[in-house]
Amino acid sequence: MQRCLSVKKNYFLNFKKIDFILNFKRSLFLKALKTKRIKESLSFHDRIRTDHYSWMQSNSTEFETTLQIEKEFAEFKLEQFKPIAKKIYFEMIKDQEIEIETPKQLVDNYHYYSKNEKGKNFVIFCRKLNIENAKEEIILDINEEGRNFNYIGVMQVLPSPNHSLIAYARDTKGDEIYSGIIKDLNTNKIIHIIDKVHTIEWIDNETLIYTAPIGINHKPTQVYIYKLGVNQTPKLIYSELDDSFIMEITQTADKRFIIINSISKSSTEIRFIDKQDKDLKLNLIFQRRKNVLYSVEHQKGNFIILTNEENGNLKVVSLPINDLSPTKTKTILEPIENRLIQELIVDQDYIISFETLNTFPMIRVIDNNLQHKFIELPEKIGVVETYSNTQIGSFQFIFSSPKFPTTIYKYDCYSNNLTLIQQNKIEDFDENLI
Fold it and tell me: What pLDDT score was predicted for residue 185?
């Protein structure tokens, strides 16, 4: 009995000791976590905002020490969750063991696709010639490229018009400041690196256009043209002066026009470059207006424009590329209350409108005679997203719902055929339980 009491007493004392140590450590953390506050008044968009922590932007030794203390405190607080974190980690690793290959996209004479291989963390970008029994060509293996860096992130892998080069944006620090990488696919070597890019597109086989992040907030507000060659200097062609806007570069689906978007939360202003113009002149479509957003595609000499200019409801109009007067627009799709047009796909014969009406998804197909038809979706409730539209007269889209796994379909506008391309497999899934 005495021994039992002694054991209990020692256990109680040890518990108190551990509890004391934890509380002492917690008190030290809390004392250290009282971060220095320096009042500073900042003016943005005619409003004054008080910020007590703007001094942290200096990247001083004091700031680094503060971050280290917060990191140690977070580790201390999350110690109890390590077992569940380990379990979740191994579940995620198990997911990586699934080999996935995306549907192939035909671009000129090549099928482009990407894949995830078992045991590898990153995507592998590939292509095959559009011939029978074509050999797979790896154009970018992020797993191999990432071996030289502690971090790697890649976006926008774009083949040049003649398919001999690729351009992509690469981040090797995790700060989301990307470099533009130009790789020769014949030699598999990097031949050019452009410092600081955000979005990038090919104009021709030797010319790129890109947006660059500027200033302490790294907002993409400048547009440059870069010609490949020795000692070439990027040429600044546009600079956005309103700091509430950012710049993005895209191109029309037919690849004729480079689209330069100035975007804010409530307004859009779009310029374009016609690749057939040897001077690569910038042209304005519509000037920015308060609370008016618009996007642009091209079809047979007309810009196809999605805009909310009419009472905030979205509509689709056409505008001749040789006469950009707003009075020349013609309505293709009238605005309707409670309808949201999420995206347009445009090719030379069809306009495909991805919409929701009273929250229900639908896909509308409009031909050159402005005749409308709708694609029958697997279920009335779900989510529809665009996937690809690299071939004229057909496109791919993704459908998913709580009762329907993520599935990629291909729709042929000429034959009205809907083909299942790829569907995610879900183990032990029973839709009757939903």
Answer: 96
Contacting residues for 36 by C-beta, under 8 A, at least 6 apart: 55, 62, 66
The upper half-sphere exposure of residue 115, i.e. CA atoms within 13 Å in the direction of its Cβ, equals 15
- List the end-to-end C-alpha distance of the chain, in Å, as a whole number: 58
Strand pairing category for 350-357 and 339-346: antiparallel
Place of tokens 């895209």: 250
- The answer to whether residues 238 and 282 touch, using CB atoms and an 8 Å cutoff, is yes
Of 221, 227, 233, residue with least CA distance to 264: 221
Burial 307-332 (b: 16+ CB within 10 A, else e): bbbeeebbbbbbbebeeeeeeebeeb
Specify the DSSP class assigned to residue 285. S
| DSSP letter, residue 63 | H
What size, in residues, is the chain?
A: 434
pTM of the model: 0.77
CA dist 298 and 316 (Å) reads 12
pLDDT of 14 higher than 80: no
**Cα 194 to Cα 179: distance, rounded to the nearest angstrom:** 6
Q: How many CA atoms lie within 13 A of 377 on its CB side?
A: 24
Burial class (CB in 10 A: 0-12, 13-18, 19+), 119: exposed
Q: What are 241's two structure tokens?
A: 């002066």
| Structure-model confidence comparison of residues 240 and 8, the more confident one | 240
d(CA 328, CA 326): 5
Residues 6+ away with beta carbon under 8 Å from 105? 111, 112, 113, 388, 390
The confidence band for 98, taking pLDDT boundaries of 50, 70 and 90, is low
Which residue in this structure is represented by tokens 């939360």?
Answer: 265
State the average pLDDT over residues 131-158: 93
Task: Spell out the residues 6+ positions from residue 304 whose beta carbon is closer than 8 angstroms to its own.
Answer: 296, 297, 298, 316, 317, 318, 332, 344, 346, 351
